[in-house]
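U., I forgot to send this yesterday:
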Amino acid sequence: MSTLPEPLRTALELSASGVPVLPLRAGKAPFGNCHRCANNVCGGRPNMKSAGPCRCPGVCHAWAAATTDPAVLTSPAWTAAWRRAVCVAYHPGAAGLTVVDLDDAAAVDWACTALPATRTVPTTRGEHWIYRGTMTSHNGVRPGVDIKSTMSYARWLGPGTGTMTALPDVVRALAVKEPPAVRPAPRSVSVPARSGDGQCPHRTPVFLERGIAMAEQRITQARSAIHATVYGTFLAVLSTHGRCGCLTNTHIARLFTAAQAKGETARHCLDAWNNASTTLGL
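Result:
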């Protein structure tokens, strides 16, 4: 074991306790995809944004490469990466954890007053607050605060201090963004004909609910090109329902939730929605 690189020794100790690990190179970045996985040839896992797990023999796809398998960690390809690694990272979500990454002193001060106490780990500029439980990862939920859990990785900086507590609702709520209100149609745009009682025809339970359910299903079943699928789905929903006022914030929140479950950030969802609205002149 003495001949093993120091990061690999740490990684093997962590993996033995059930924590999936991966090496980070200079700049605290994951190793890039190998030539076998470049340009999406591996089937839907380009640019280290895999749906995992990665089955490439090399150290590809960032968080999706994280493993607890000692045979993989000590394989020739991985050992070569460990010799170049500057630190160890782990996949919090796969370990059943959520890391609230507080990037500066102001963020730490905020957490001390707003979040339940839990295990803390000092970082270069702030702290990691670690909770037991998982959620979708989100960056920039407030100034200096990122959430790292599923489909993300965090640096291993030691076990930390304090008792780890269950993931609280206040942390989950940080990732919930208010969906944008649907803007009223410009006067120059023709709206669908109204029914005899003056109600929008799309407000019938069958038509509207089926449309939203089909949109959710399209996003949920996507296996690749998630960004394009989300945008195309938003465009289709807005083209049908965006001009008559039948969409509510509840409907939009359902679409955003489906997209975020596939790894989209709240910002990506909002951008896709706004771009679709602009394309349709809404």
